[in-house]
Structure prediction request, 268 residues.
Amino acid sequence: SSATLTELDARYHFACDVAKTAASRALSWYQQRHQLVIEHKKDLQDVVSEADRNVEQLVKHLIRERFPDDAVLGEESGGDTAGARFIWVIDPIDGTSNFLNGLHNWCVSLAIVCENEPVIGVVCDPNHHETFHACRGKGAWVNEKRIQAHSAQQLNQGVLGISSSNSQPVEPLTTFIGGLLSQGGMFIRNGSGALMSAWAAAGRLIGYYEAHMNPWDGLPGIVLMREAGGMTNDYLGHNGLQQGNPVLLANTVLYPQLKALLPAHISL
Ligand code: IPD
Ligand code: CA
Ligand code: CA
Ligand code: CA
Prediction:
């Protein structure tokens, strides 16, 4: 059976606390970022440091202490999710390249999945004192304020968030951006996909698109946008938790318009 209110409530409050604790630890690393050794993963743009690994271990430790039966899957250390009723999916620092270069757009990103349903999403941005949070059926919020998706009815009535990384093919992104611009649309890439998707749920952006997102980046925005009254693709379909999937977020009017900009062979 799906998650009960009691199970969700306990985890919702705790998830917000954990994200804030992790974000303040990350912020103290950020203030000493010049001392961090930058390492590369898949390519020269794909960076990581001790800060990412340290914050991930802190988050894993806090969750295991409070909910020992829950599974935790993290960007830097993976995790065994087999058989768990609740799966925490965490990115200790989303926007590592920004973080290491002194750009303020990065966040702690955290989601909870129960029976293949994303039920809780939290994005904590300590530089701007904002925590975006949502729990299934309880609306979407930034700190204590309710948020809603943008009210635009046309693509030229605001700015769309778009991300890409160098491990992704140039297509379908170029086709998508071309179509957007030709309709008078505009886009932004801030270097943190989780944070931009939260901005979309808060109605600051008209939506968000990324051709492939890992679950620790994509899931919080899925929960936030649904609770903010908007539409999303079925992110956890087709093994999304194992392999990631595209992410498209927008209000109900713009969602089909954005989907129509994708090349025909792309399915969401
Ligand atoms: C990256 C950021 C970026 C997105 C990449 C992600 P990381 O995450 O979210 O915006 O375009 O696909 O990998 O490595 O900084 O956690
Ligand atoms: Ca990374
Ligand atoms: Ca990330
Ligand atoms: Ca990361």
Q: What stands out?
A: The domain at 5-147 is CATH 3.30.540.10 (Fructose-1,6-Bisphosphatase; Chain A, domain 1). The longest strand covers residues 86-94.
